[in-house]
Amino acid sequence: MSDRLSTHPFVGNDRVDDDHLGEECGVFGIIGDAEAAAHTSLGLHALQHRGQEAAGIVSFDGVQFHSHRGMGHVSENFASEAVMDRLKGNMAIGHTRYATTGETILRNVQPLFAELDTGGFSIAHNGNLTNALTLRNELKRRGCLFQSTSDTEVVIHLMAISEETTFEDRLIDALRQIEGAYSFVGLMNGALIGARDPLGVRPLVLGKSGNSHVLASETCALDIIGAEYVRDVDAGEVVIITHEGVRSLKPFPKQHPRFCIFEYIYFARPDSVAEGHSVYDVRKKIGAQLAAESAVDCDVVVPVPDSGVPAALGYAAAARVPFEYGIIRNHYVGRTFIQPTDKTRNLGVKRKHNPNRDVLEGKRVVLVDDSIVRGTTSKKIVEMVRQAGATEVHMRISSPPTAHPCFFGIDTPDYDKLLAHQYDVPAMAKLLGVDSLAFISIDGLYKALGEAKRDMGHPQFCDACFTGDYPLPLTDRNAGTQPKQLSLLTERV
Ligand code: AMP
After folding, report:
1. Which terminus has fewer CB within 10 Å in the chain: N or C?
2. What gap in Å lies between CA 441 and CA 447, rounded to an integer?
3. Using one digit for the tens of pLDDT, what is the confidence trace for 54-94?
4. Residue of 7, 119, 11, 125 whose CA lies nearest to 65
5. What structural domains and CATH numbers belong to the chain?
6. Which residue's alpha carbon is at the smallest distance from atom 21 of ligand 1?
7. Is 25 considered catalytic here?
8. Distance, CA 398 to ligand 1 centroid (Å)?
9. Does residue 485 register a pLDDT over 50?
10. What pLDDT does 363 receive?
11. Which ligand 1 atom minimizes the distance to the CA of 376?
12. Mean pLDDT, the chain, as a whole number?
């Protein structure tokens, strides 16, 4: 790989207005593939659950970078032949985006692109940099002109002003200065780049298809293009992939990895394999453990679809109670929480779920869901199930109470909106209108993952949303530079 590149022009559709700081997203990258952009759009389609607000692809054809970015789903942006024809080249990266701030005007959809001293460089990011605002203020003082409010842009400026000479050294120099959770994919002339934060909080996997190499947030994005899974990119690893192959750099001191436990509970797709565990299998085991901890006499186990399904299957099998689809989900609406205000969010739940009366009428029902955040979904669902004639409603949750916000790339509201931060379990049960409510214990969760208890030595996961044990510094928050955690789960009026 050359470390001194000529200037490469950038050809793209108009920049889209955006105004956000952190993201909960999916990333994909491919090199050595004649249909790089088409396969990237398929990969992003498989990662659509990780971000539905915007999508973007940047490709490189050996001379020029090409870009197309837009608001909305992958299929809305990459269905046209004209768009795909423009995204030339045998290497590309892509991004599905789910902004975690609530501003209304949007200014930048990833991948971002910049012309550096070392040549053109495009980058896409899943995660959240917890010192981005501190660095940004410092960079602005030094004269950097920011084009967006994205934390990802900080990395580009750090690379641009680095004293190092080679692209690689500049990248590592930048990574050493950022804090937080990140999985990056990057594209430069002749190389696809992947980087994962030193604790490996956010996922990134490496795959192969014929002569092409692939990077993706989840293995389901490899499956869709027929690529085989090679391995997870290690915590703290930087991979530089050229037509010659994959080169691995380990620029950080080794630490115990802390993969995000919430990826297993809710965020990843169940058909993905993360860090060696099948997400589906883990969810079923969590359900079985939940039954072992808090089974209750009932006639039927009903999942809150879709995310509660595998845990409900595990619960029903372990408790030897019939599993039934007592709530039917309409798949033609977006995720409920994407609705911006409480009023429309409530409407969203009604649009999305309908009770299957025959299954519920006259029954003692155990409802299984993956998590309670604000409690909006649960309250509506419980009401719906009672109206459909259930005689008892017991709620079982396949995560411990979400009592702390995530600052590492999962979209959760701040403390004041988290039900479990404000109320204990009996008070929550009362608010939700259930006959009983139980959450899996933190030790039970670790047990379902086949790991030692979290208090034996070091915890193997980032479980801060349940424990408040943040494994990374919260520099911006502690300095008071970060605005209150903004979220799609909070109102945007
Ligand atoms: P709430 O209605 O605010 O309690 O949201 C809980 C529901 O949203 C659960 O059914 C989850 O499946 C889903 N959920 C949990 N965490 C998140 C998140 N970070 N982003 C979006 N949805 C979530």
Report:
1. C
2. 10
3. 999 999 999 999 999 998 899 999 999 999 999 999 999 99
4. 11
5. 26-258 (3.60.20.10), 274-469 (3.40.50.2020)
6. 337
7. yes
8. 12
9. no
10. 98
11. 2
12. 89
